Amino acid sequence: MTIKPLSLLAVATVAVTLSGCATTKLTPPATDFIGSVPADYNAELMTFNDEPSTGFHGGNMTYQYTPENALLTVVIQLQNARWSWNFDRRTVEKELFPHACEQFEAPLAAGMGLRYWYAGSGGFVTQVLTSATCQTLGYTQ
């Protein structure tokens, strides 16, 4: 059996397409947030960096925790470079911050910051969510 050049091209195209679906570690946007958490939280939060990507609202979601400033960045990257995000930072904050305040209440109270980064066309970064922000917005007791 011989493989025709067109078949090789098709195989190569599929391989490149499939490899493009995996979320790669991106360099997060700069921030002026400086926080610190106890060593046990740092160790626990570092495990987020090893979590596999998951699907989320038309993209892939990964976590990047930076222990130097105790900042957890939730990275949501588009699956296709031709797609773009069609909503804004305030909408995301209004929808996701209450859940994040509840889900991450203890690490936020310990000094961690959390932000969402929608990477890709039309992308943006939310403000850094802190325990104080959660209290101000009435999302925690």
In short:
The protein has 141 residues and is an alpha+beta fold. 36% of the residues lie in helices and 20% in strands. The protein has one domain: 2-Layer Sandwich (GMP Synthetase, Chain A, domain 3).
Please provide a written account of the structure.
- The protein has helices at residues 5-21, 39-46, 89-103, 105-109, 131-136, and strands at residues 54-56, 59-66, 71-78, 113-119, 124-125.
- It has 141 residues and is of the alpha+beta class.
- The chain has one domain (25-136): GMP Synthetase, Chain A, domain 3.
- Strands 1-2-3-4-5 form a five-stranded mixed sheet, with helices on one face.
- The chain is globular, with a radius of gyration of 19 Å.
- The relative contact order is 0.16.
- Keywords: Signal.
- This is Lipoprotein.
- It comes from Photobacterium swingsii.
- Residues 1-22 form the signal peptide.
Q: Report strand order across the widest sheet.
A: 1-2-3-4-5
CATH class designation = Alpha Beta
Alpha-beta content class: alpha+beta
CATH architecture term: 2-Layer Sandwich
Give the oligomer, counting copies of the same chain as homo and different chains as hetero. Answer: single chain
Rg measurement, Å: 19 Å
Instruction: Give a short account of the largest sheet.
Output: 5 strands, mixed
Q: What's the number of helices?
A: 5
Give the number of domains. Answer: 1
Shape: globular
Helical content class: 25-40%
User: In whole angstroms, how far apart are the ends?
Assistant: 70 Å
Which H/E pattern describes the elements?
HHEEEHHEEH
Give the low-pLDDT segments. 1-23
Q: Within the CATH hierarchy, at the fold level, what is the topology?
A: GMP Synthetase, Chain A, domain 3
Strand content: 15-25%
On the 0 to 100 scale, the average pLDDT is: 82
Q: Got a strand count?
A: 5
Protein name: Lipoprotein
Signal peptide: 1-22
Keywords: Signal
Organism: Photobacterium swingsii
